[in-house]
What we know:
The structure holds 2 protein chains of 2 kinds. Helix content of chain A is 0%, strand content 55%. By secondary structure, chain A is an all-beta fold. In chain A, strands 2, 4, 5, 6, 9, 10 and 11 form a 7-stranded mixed sheet that branches. In chain A, strands 1-3-8-7 form a 4-stranded antiparallel sheet, with no helix packed on it. The relative contact order of chain B is 0.33. The termini of chain B are far apart. Chain B has no helices and 12 strands. Chain B is mostly beta strands.
Amino acid sequence: GAVVSQHPSWVICKSGTSVKIECRSLDFQATTMFWYRQFPKQSLMLMATSNEGSKATYEQGVEKDKFLINHASLTLSTLTVTSAHPEDSSFYICSARAGGDNQPQHFGDGTRLSIL
Amino acid sequence: AQSVTQLDSQVPVFEEAPVELRCNYSSSVSVYLFWYVQYPNQGLQLLLKYLSGSTLVKGINGFEAEFNKSQTSFHLRKPSVHISDTAEYFCAVSEYNFNKFYFGSGTKLNVKP
């Protein structure tokens, strides 16, 4: 149980393109989803926390207009990288949590984004 | 605020040898502790976690870790590694509400034949 699916797993696109990444909880309802970014040879950094039906809470230094997060349902959150540039190339990982606090996060397999 | 330090960025080891991956953390509050494994181009897979109780925690794939509160450490160990254990390992801490995970910088375990 507790499977989180990300799509696509790998995307390559031209600079200036907007890219949408989906994060789905397949067998549970995720009231909270988290988006992380992993730079090469570095650890995961939390970008934002989204609660279903509410605006996402962004971490300091993360551009809200650059990284649009939508959590419209209990099983789906999307991250849209708007007008992507090469410096946005990274590995993006989402996690989902069922219920409220004190529930563990379950991680997706990540999305490799490469901007040419 | 919490922080996690993984002192070894890379650990080479021969197959069937024991291994220890070190993790130290700092926190002003009590935390939960986790070890995750990441295979190339994949997400994170939970190896084990310490929430409460026995300080020696056993996880999947033969790994175990020991929580040492006085030393603020949560080192990961395996008595005999396999080639398939080659991956990157992340230590993480979370506050009791699981709202935020703080990850270490990762340790790449390279198991050689």
